[in-house]
Design goal:
By secondary structure, the chain is an alpha/beta fold. The protein has helices spanning 3-12, 21-26, 35-47, 49-59, 61-64, 70-81, 94-100, 103-116, 122-130, 160-166, 177-181, 212-215, 228-232, 251-266, 283-295, 394-418, 440-447, 450-455, 467-470, 490-499, 528-533, 537-546, 567-572; strands at 149-153, 172-173, 189-192, 199-202, 219-221, 241-244, 276-280, 302-306, 323-328, 343-347, 381-385, 426-431, 458-459, 501-503, 514-520, 561-564, 577-580. Strands 6, 7, 8, 9, 12, 13, 14 and 15 form an 8-stranded mixed beta sheet that branches. A 5-stranded mixed beta sheet has the order 2-3-4-1-5. The structure holds S-adenosylmethionine (SAM). S-adenosylmethionine binds at residues 226, 246-252, 279-282, 285, 309-311, 329-331, 554-555. Residues 139-522 form the SAM-dependent MTase RsmB/NOP-type domain.
């Protein structure tokens, strides 16, 4: 069976596998197409289905091609009009012949749809759809919103005033972000962000990817939330060098470099040799990092450690003796990224539309009825979870829970490692995940770890945060049942949650889903907070030991043998039991 028949069967649940899209794809063996191919075709087509439903209906395709069901028409028109490689079938395949007969009409309707939505090029249309166009609506207003194009002005090369005068002449400033989110086609407006300096928002339809300023690194595309960590770190001249522990592709690295550079120029431009030391374990990603750093003209300040595992660094090495701040943005589930959603909606074309006067097509019983894809579905919307959410279908759920647990253990190790650097007194920890386990869960456990206690680490309270973060109102969340043994008072817990920052995706804030918290300590002064947490450390360490990182993807632990403190030892002060691949935290 071809890719398209197989994808249509998955969507129609022809073999009654049921469950989420992933379980329908992965539980069924014996297909010709790879699961990844099927998943990509279905999810990408679903993203475009609002547009393609209209295009297919207006082209009259379904009225004329009896072999095509609405689902097949949608999948094929996606590949014909949008996919780089076109329809994945031999030239004489019955489906390819069918869709190609209507290529001219489909292309004309697609172009009309693009222009009606205000996109001058296919590229900008694609960017907008990837950014979530066609999906969200502003709470309470019913207005459709689009994820804005956030642009950080790279102050290593230019200024906001210079860019407004040169790249954006004729653009008007709005003080209401919702104007940008709901902007009609071709609006020339921008919003100057109130939390992060030098950050602008534009309507998603504005295509800046071809602008000279973007190509030359004067402008950097960076979601607002992703600008929080470098700003939140509140780097001061006395902080000396800064480490970015997980740097590629480098948006936060160049942001930190820009902040350091601003301080240097305030000091009369005299370079005091301060560095942003950027670790990237993956060599291929480090090459991208290197390009981004050069393009941003940050290479004087950024020193790249390509292929270096942050976990394998020795905190007391000479190279790090001037490091006072660490930014940590480790690999995560990416569940906050806009465009990756938990559920899929595929809007299907109505076969009765596009025929003359809307008449039902004549002829034999349509072939599409025989493909296990009922005509009753023809003008409907298919709604499907991407991942498993039904508890009884445990296979995928188990894997997900396992993955989350492995990720949070890895993230906790990274954060605890950062806490060991002798001169470091501030750390930001961030993820683009929406899950408690990767966010507040990691922060709570890190605060209760023995390294936090020994070195006096505590959370940076909201009232002490840099202005733009203090006034951000979405704060940390607690999830019952995830860390029951925490043993903190409600007040202590509230105090930590209030210090944590979250961003939600698909809201009037125009951000992706994100989390960031800042940890601080006073050099050489043990913290009261850590002391008050001491009683809880045993239980939390037990939890960490249970959820040890078990290695996947590119975040494997270093092979070096590390020191471990077991739960019982941490309570008694005994240390230094040697065990491979374990780490005292
Ligand atoms: C979420 S991304 C970082 C994004 C980056 N901060 C930015 O804003 O552009 C995480 C990165 O950390 C890298 N990484 C994962 N584990 C690492 C480790 N132990 N040491 C250094 N880099 C690591 C991954 O390869 C990946 O490129």
């Amino acid at each position: 069976m071809s890719l398209y028949y197989e994808a249509a069967a998955v969507l129609a649940n022809a073999d009654n596998t049921g469950g989420s899209l992933k379980s329908r794809i992965y539980k069924q063996s014996g297909r010709k197409s790879s699961p990844a191919q099927l998943f990509a075709l279905v999810t990408e087509s679903a993203k475009w289905s609002v547009v393609l439903k209209d295009v297919v209906e207006k082209s009259g395709l379904l009225a004329e091609e009896k072999k095509l069901s609405p689902i097949l028409a949608l999948l094929l028109s996606h590949d014909l009009l949008i996919s780089k490689n076109g329809v994945a079938a031999p030239a004489n395949h019955v489906l390819k012949l069918a869709i190609n007969r209507h290529k001219a009409r489909l292309s004309a309707e697609f172009t009309k749809a693009r222009i009606a939505r205000g996109h001058p090029t296919l590229e900008s249309f694609k960017n907008a759809v990837t950014d979530g166009e066609n999906k969200t609506s502003l709470a309470g207003s019913g207005k459709r919103i689009q994820h804005p194009r956030w642009v950080r002005v790279n102050t290593l090369k230019t200024t906001v005033a210079e860019q407004l005068a040169t790249t954006f002449p004729g653009y008007e400033r709005t003080n209401d972000l919702s104007d940008v989110l709901c902007a009609p086609a071709s609006s020339k407006i921008y919003y100057l962000d109130g939390n992060i300096p030098n950050l602008l928002a534009f309507p998603s339809k504005v295509d800046l990817s071809k602008s000279a300023a973007y190509k030359s690194g004067h402008l950097i595309f960076q979601d607002k939330a992703s600008c929080f960590p470098a700003y939140f770190l509140d780097i001061k001249p006395e902080d000396g060098d800064v480490i970015d522990g997980c740097a590629a592709p480098g948006n936060k690295t160049t942001h930190a470099a820009a902040i350091v550079s601003e301080q240097l120029s305030k000091n009369g431009g005299s370079g005091d040799g301060r560095k942003v030391i950027a670790f990237e374990k993956d060599k291929a990603r480090a090459r991208i990092l290197s390009k981004m750093v050069k393009l941003a003209s940050a290479d004087d300040i950024v020193s790249i450690r390509s292929g270096h595992d942050f976990l394998a660094t020795k905190p007391d090495a000479d190279d790090f003796q001037h490091v006072g701040a660490i930014m940590l943005d480790p690999s995560c589930s990416g569940s906050g990224i806009v465009g990756r959603d938990d559920s899929l909606q595929m809007h299907l074309p109505d076969p009765s539309l596009g025929t003359q006067q809307g008449a039902k097509p004549k002829g034999k019983k349509r072939k599409r009825d025989q493909e296990g894809i009922s005509v009753a579905q023809s003008s409907s919307t298919i709604k499907l979870e991407l991942d498993e959410t039904v508890p009884e279908e445990t296979t995928v759920q188990d894997k997900f829970a396992e993955r989350l647990s492995a990720l949070s253990s890895f993230q906790l190790r990274m954060l605890c490692h950062a806490m060991r650097f002798p001169k470091v007194c501030k750390i930001t920890y961030s993820t683009c995940s929406v899950y408690f386990e990767e966010n507040e869960g990691v922060v709570f456990q890190a605060l209760l770890s023995s390294v936090a206690k020994d070195r006096g680490w505590r959370i940076l309270k909201r009232q002490d945060q840099v202005e733009g973060m203090k006034k951000w109102n979405i704060r940390g969340l607690w999830e019952d049942g995830k860390l029951q043994k925490l043993g903190m008072t409600d007040q202590e817990r509230h105090h930590v949650l209030e210090a944590c920052i979250r961003c939600n995706k698909g809201t009037g804030d125009g951000t992706m889903g994100f989390f960031v918290a800042a940890l601080i300590r006073d050099e050489d002064a043990p913290s009261e907070m850590a002391a008050s947490y001491e009683k809880c450390a045993i239980e939390v360490l037990a939890h960490v030991e249970d959820n040890e990182w078990n290695g996947f993807g590119h975040e494997e632990p270093s092979k070096e043998e590390e020191t471990v403190v077991t739960a019982s030892e941490s309570g008694t002060g005994k240390k230094n039991k040697k065990r491979p691949r374990r780490q005292k935290i």
